[in-house]
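Re: beginner question about structure tokens

> Can someone show what the tokenized structure looks like for a real chain? I only ever see the sequence side.

Sure, here's an example I had lying around. Input first:
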Amino acid sequence: MFPGALRAIASTSALIPRGSSFSFQHSHKHLTGTAPSPSRACFYGNRCIPIAPVSSTRASMDVEIVIGDPESLRKKIDAIRFAGTGKLQVIADFDCTLTRYWIDGVRGQSSHGLLRQGNPEFDEKRKALYEYYHPLEISPTIPITEKAKIMEEWWGKTHGLLVEGGLTFQAIKDSVLDANIAFRDGVLELFEFLEDRGVPLLVFSAGLADIIEEVFRQRLHRTFKNIKVVSNRMVFDENGQLIGFKGKTIHVLNKNEHALDMAAPVHEKPGDPNGLDYDFASVKARTNVLLLGDHIGDLGMSDGLNYENRIAVGFLNENVDDSLENYREAFDIVYLNDAPMKGVVQLVSQLCSSPK
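And the corresponding structure tokens:
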């Protein structure tokens, strides 16, 4: 275990006996409650926050978290609560952060990986690129500056194949319909909670905005007025065939708020106009940030924002033994092994609660 860090397995009865009372100090006011059954909890310094159980399909998996500096996290939580929801925004990665890494024991697809062009030759070419570049993406030994160049090369080649292979928007719809992709348990509750309180959520993705929007439409069957997508955007001709991409390429290591000019709402239907009335000045004035990502490069999503407080939550889905120390140093909270979003919902609820 790392010095000063805190690690807890959130299904261990030794942490909180079933049905027992728990308590923690907050702003000099003593609060008490009852732990859920079965007991699941994460610990923030001297406070204990219950976590809802995972779904029955993954009930055998423990929810394990690592907090490198509990005292620093406690201070950030307090500062954000006292500033109020009017100063809070959430920035989240899409693939393997909002979506699950494993689905029924099978690796879930990304917004790039699910795409089928309707041209087997080009599908195989993109698969070959993935098999070559993905190990480089997740390698803990390649320096970030070198890895960024590698990612730029990968994305450029992939986008070129999509245009050359004659991708159509109908192929996107069909691909999502057949895709092995699902949101983490608790994501819908998170979206609804944030929308009810008027907290904006910027979804930054190195994937494809047009596919992400289609996943929202097909998997959630609704849109959210507070959610905007910042991702690679396609340009289609009048026949619905891809002819190019808008703006600069966004990959896993260059996502940040400098790319806000590419943001648009999750459209109710394909072809809706971009959200030109979105008040980005107001978003930038929200200087308390909850950042969600599964890659250390995702921390750069807030680079264009002059934030006062930032709580960074990382989902470490693979290479846990090799990558845990780096994630523990980079993120305030690390969820291991494809955890559900329930703990984040609990955290957001606390951040949006009125200070006592």
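Each token stands for a local structural state, so reading them left to right follows the chain. DSSP finds nine helices and 16 strands in the chain.
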